[in-house]
């Protein structure tokens, strides 16, 4: 199967193609799973090199605060499906490492909003730069056409989930 081969059958595709399509989708799932696992591991290593005290769940919470913040602990708990006690420990660790700051809500002083600190943003930007470099290295030797084909396929795949 080439990078430009279709994965969805044409409306009039013979039934014999169904098994081959099912096999191809299974292989794609396997490759995506491997890619996600390797990417997550590499990203965590990059962050851990910059802030050695951060590990595992700390990084998941930091990432969520970065993308959702300012956010409340309750919103994070729901979004990440983490119980409040576990989340509270993670937030405390992130605050101790000066990665997350907590500020009272201007509307309701009882509510605390979490956001990443400037130091966290700096570390994340540095990690992103290293991340981009490793991807550039992984794509070395790919043609523009191959990259555009992959990009088009990923966009089509991601659009189907919206």
Structure write-up:
- This protein is mainly alpha-helical and 162 residues long.
- 65% of the residues lie in helices and 6% in strands.
- The protein is built from six helices and two strands.
- Strands 1-2 form a two-stranded antiparallel ribbon.
- Strand 1 (100-104) and strand 2 form a beta hairpin.
- Helix 1 (16-50) packs across helix 5 (118-138).
- The longest helix is centred in the first third of the chain and has 35 residues, at 16-50.
- It is globular.
- The two termini are 27 Å apart.
- Residues 1-6 have low confidence and may be disordered.
Structural class from helices and strands? mainly alpha
Order of helices and strands: HHHHEEHH
In terms of per-residue confidence, which ranges show pLDDT below 50 for 5 or more consecutive residues? 1-6
Number of strands: 2
Strand proportion, as a percent range, falls in 5-15%
Q: Characterize the biggest β-sheet.
A: 2 strands, antiparallel
Describe the global form: globular
Give the helix tally.
6
Termini distance?
27 Å
- The radius of gyration is 21 Å
Average pLDDT level: 86
Helix content: 55-70%
Q: Tell me the strand order in the biggest sheet.
A: 1-2
List keywords for this structure.
MarR family transcriptional regulator, 6% strand, 2 strands, DNA-binding transcription factor activity, disordered N terminus, two-stranded antiparallel ribbon, globular, mainly alpha, single chain, 162 residues
């Amino acid at each position: 199967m080439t990078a430009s081969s279709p994965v969805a059958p044409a409306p009039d595709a013979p039934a014999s193609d169904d098994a081959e399509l099912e096999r191809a989708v299974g292989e794609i799932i396997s490759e995506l799973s491997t890619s996600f696992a390797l990417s997550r591991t590499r990203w965590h290593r990059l962050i851990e090199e910059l802030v050695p005290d951060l590990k595992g769940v700390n990084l998941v919470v930091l990432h969520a605060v970065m993308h959702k913040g300012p956010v409340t602990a309750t919103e994070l708990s729901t979004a990440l499906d983490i119980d409040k006690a576990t989340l509270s420990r993670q937030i405390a660790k992130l605050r101790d490492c000066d990665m997350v700051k907590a500020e009272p809500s201007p509307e309701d002083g009882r509510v605390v909003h979490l956001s990443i600190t400037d130091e966290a943003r700096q570390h994340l930007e540095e990690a992103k730069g290293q991340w981009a470099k490793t991807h550039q290295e992984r794509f070395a030797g790919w043609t523009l056409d191959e990259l555009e084909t992959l990009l088009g396929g990923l966009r089509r795949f991601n659009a189907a989930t919206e």
